[in-house]
TrEMBL record:
Keywords: Amino-acid biosynthesis, Aromatic amino acid biosynthesis, Lyase, Pyridoxal phosphate, Tryptophan biosynthesis. It is an enzyme of class 4 (lyase). The modification N6-(pyridoxal phosphate)lysine is found at K98. It comes from Chitinophaga terrae (ex Kim and Jung 2007). The lineage of its organism: Bacteria, Pseudomonadati, Bacteroidota, Chitinophagia, Chitinophagales. This is Tryptophan synthase beta chain. Its EC number is 4.2.1.20. GO terms for molecular function: tryptophan synthase activity. The beta subunit is responsible for the synthesis of L-tryptophan from indole and L-serine. It catalyses: (1S,2R)-1-C-(indol-3-yl)glycerol 3-phosphate + L-serine = D-glyceraldehyde 3-phosphate + L-tryptophan + H2O. HAMAP family: Trp_synth_beta (MF_00133). Residues 65-387 form the Tryptophan synthase beta chain-like PALP domain. The keyword Lyase applies. Pathway: Amino-acid biosynthesis; L-tryptophan biosynthesis; L-tryptophan from chorismate: step 5/5.
Length: 402
């Protein structure tokens, strides 16, 4: 896998100062400078090292189960009158794309000489992916999680504990993801020498957005090869992905950003409706602000307080968006849509019945917009099926009776 390609001439990749257009950068407390600076100066060199890439590739192949299949969904294609391919990240070990990033970051942490890992988690998916790689690499693992989320997500808390992680409740603020992130940052400030912070999405201070995008870029590298084998061309007409912080989307788009014929579609969580007050459609509702170390689009009140987001899917329930995506939105390179909770549920049932695949609630948001694309008969669509639906069964069952 070539995770260290030179993207220096691209308008859509990070620039040498850590920005995507006017978004990105590293807006961090002074006490975090040493940690973040160490990453900034070393990450690219480490990712470029052939022995690093060999170890990353081998684990992706033999532990995660990559390459993940690119599957032509025939019945779904018939229904929407186009050729729809699903990139099956749901078949990865631990059930989603998140493991690609945690494998990359744990190998990086080893090379930085760290022996302790911290992470934040909301629904617990990133916490589980982090606890998994810590077990694999024999590293101490501390996961911060809002105390409300700990109650809501008991099975994932049990998984993390079984994998040997310590789960620490974040009891401040709304006791959810953004508070857990604040606690993780506080821990990192107190433990700058031995600890690496495995951030779970394509946000945070530079270099995290680029680093996470590169670990996830295996997705689009595989798509190019697989699509060529199956259709004769590496280039689809549409790429579709859901966006929480933006890591599965960044991975899906990465090797296509500079292919202007490929249309990039990003789907945010519309919640109960974009203007209902219960939504996580950041590009439509957000303004320029700073969250968790990055300048980006962010849902906030007029005096700059973060607005609590809402989505039926925990993975999309975030008030910001990674800086790469804020730039794709503002530059017009990406088209941003939103799907409501209701639309996503319908799409999840539809995929289950048409293809025998139960998608994650997050991925169902991407599926829900197939009906809104101006598809033509010979169009090729590649949609990132970011994860599987086992974790969402309770939500699905609750809505089945309606
Ligand atoms: C966490 C998660 C997401 C959202 O995170 P991104 O960083 O935006 O990809 C999407 N799908 C699944 C299955 C997830 O677990």
């Amino acid at each position: 896998m070539d995770i260290a390609i030179n993207t220096g001439n691209s308008k859509y990749h990070v620039d040498k100062n850590g920005y995507y257009g006017r978004f990105g950068g590293a807006y961090i407390p002074e006490m975090l400078y040493p940690n973040v600076e160490e990453l900034q100066t070393k990450y690219f060199q480490i990712l470029s090292d052939p022995s690093f890439q060999q170890e990353f590739d081998a684990l992706l192949r033999n532990y995660v189960g990559r390459p993940s299949p690119l599957y032509l969904a025939r019945r779904l294609s018939e229904k929407y009158n186009a050729n729809i391919y699903l990139k099956r990240e749901d078949l990865n070990h631990t059930g989603a794309h998140k493991i690609n990033n945690t494998i990359g970051q744990i190998l990086l942490a080893k090379r930085l000489g760290k022996n302790r890992i911290i992470a934040e988690t909301g629904a617990g998916q990133h916490g589980v992916a982090t606890a998994t790689v810590c077990a694999l690499m024999n590293m101490e693992c501390v996961v911060y999680m809002g105390s409300i989320d700990i109650e809501r997500q008991a099975p994932n808390v049990a998984r993390m504990k079984m994998l040997g992680a310590t789960v620490v409740p974040a009891t401040s603020g709304s006791q959810t993801l953004k508070d857990a992130t604040n606690e993780a940052i506080r821990d990192w400030i107190n433990n700058p020498v031995d600890t690496h912070y495995i951030l779970g999405t394509a946000s945070g201070p530079h270099p995290y957005p680029d680093m996470v995008a590169r670990f996830q870029s295996v997705i689009s590298e595989e798509i190019r090869k697989q699509l060529k084998e199956q259709t004769g061309s590496e280039l689809p007409d549409y790429l579709v992905a859901c966006i929480g912080g933006g890591s599965n989307a960044a991975g899906t788009y990465f090797h296509y950003l500079d292919e202007p014929s490929v249309k990039i579609i990003a789907v945010e969580a519309g919640g109960k409706g974009v203007h209902s007050g219960f939504s996580a459609a950041t590009t439509q509702l957000g303004k320029l602000g700073i969250i968790h170390g990055a300048k980006t689009l962010l849902m906030q009140t007029d005096d700059g307080q973060i607005v609590e987001p809402h989505s039926i899917s925990a993975g999309l329930d975030y008030p910001g968006i990674g800086p790469m995506h804020a730039h794709l939105y503002e530059s017009g390179r990406g088209q941003f849509l939103s799907a409501t909770d209701e639309e996503a549920l319908e799409a999840a049932y539809e995929l289950s019945k048409l293809e025998g695949i139960i998608p994650a609630m997050e991925s169902a948001h991407a599926l829900a917009k197939l009906k809104d694309l101006p598809l033509k008969k010979d169009d090729t669509v590649v949609l990132c099926l970011s994860g599987r639906g086992d974790k969402d069964l309770n939500t699905y069952i609750r809505h089945m009776s309606k």
